[in-house]
From TrEMBL:
Descriptive protein name: Biotin synthase
Keywords: Iron, Iron-sulfur, Metal-binding, S-adenosyl-L-methionine
InterPro entries assigned to the protein according to its UniProt record, in alphabetical order: Aldolase_TIM (IPR013785), HydE/PylB-like (IPR034422), rSAM (IPR007197), rSAM_sf (IPR058240)
Location of the Radical SAM core domain: 51-269
Sample GO molecular function, one term: metal ion binding
Keyword Nucleus: no
UniProt xrefs under PANTHER family: 3-METHYLORNITHINE SYNTHASE, BIOTIN SYNTHASE
Amino acid sequence: MNKRVKEIIDKSYNGALLESQEIRELLELDICSEESFYLAYKARQMSEEACAGKAEIHGQVGVNSGPCSCNCAFCSFAAGNKIFNAQRIESLEFILQQALDLEEAGANAIYLMATAHLNFQSFLEMGQVVQRELRTGVPLIANIADFSYDEAAALRKAGFTGVYHAARLGEGKVTRIDLKDRLQTFEAAGKAGLILGSCVEPIGPEHSHEEIVEKMIVAREAKPGFSGAMRRVTIPGTSLSAHGMLGETRMAHIVAAVRMATPREIPGNCTHEPNVMGAVAGANLLWAEAGSNPRDVVDNTEKSRGYDVGKCREILVDAGWQVLNGPSKFFITK
Ligand code: SF4
């Protein structure tokens, strides 16, 4: 095995923070090389140690759909992609039922996701109702547009434990969102006591190693409960579809590299969409999805691309993981 690569991987495993150049060298490895498999092996070991051997499944409910003016090229809701032509908000009863179904199936955290178009006040009200009805103490997490400190405090008050938020690849270039706004939101969330979940996303063949490394570092510096990597899912007929999509083996390699680039104090390492290879290579968090979904072209992803909790559990077990019962350990209030 290449001595330098082994040294980089062992350096991270032994607790030191990797430099950009070192992370880049990990990304550059051939995905079928001895070094890449050693990377996956150590990432898996590090992930297992960071979560006491228990992987998690988080369940997300998309509460609305319709054209969104932020126009992120990879998203089915982008107005310019012309997939969804009318605004639609699911009924509160339906959203609640989907959240409770995910909880009952064993999800360790429940997320409510909205497009940037949804009114903040309506979202807060949904959150309050869902939080009141959850039965097992699993944390409620918001996945919404950028927000101010006052809005972060309102989310906390409404019963949200945390937020999922990411500085995406190509921010400001293939989206109308400035990276600076993402960073301000991280800060607002932290100040209001909301725990952050984040990851490097959405990754496609069009992204350079430099940009992937840059976003790994942005994520780790935000000190989230988990990082990880998600691939860009091609929405047919959109501008990015010409690039195609990364394969699961390449994604597993990136997930392993994110684990090594991220300090142990950050226990979670997610991957999306769920797959065995990623879980073997150190992903200890998978996602079940219901309702709307920016990677899907229908309102009910549970009947399309979205996996349910049972399927995520099957994947984790196939990859040799035990699955946590009860509330997530990645969203513990400090
Ligand atoms: S990713 Fe979010 S902000 Fe961007 S277009 Fe889709 S819904 Fe809007």
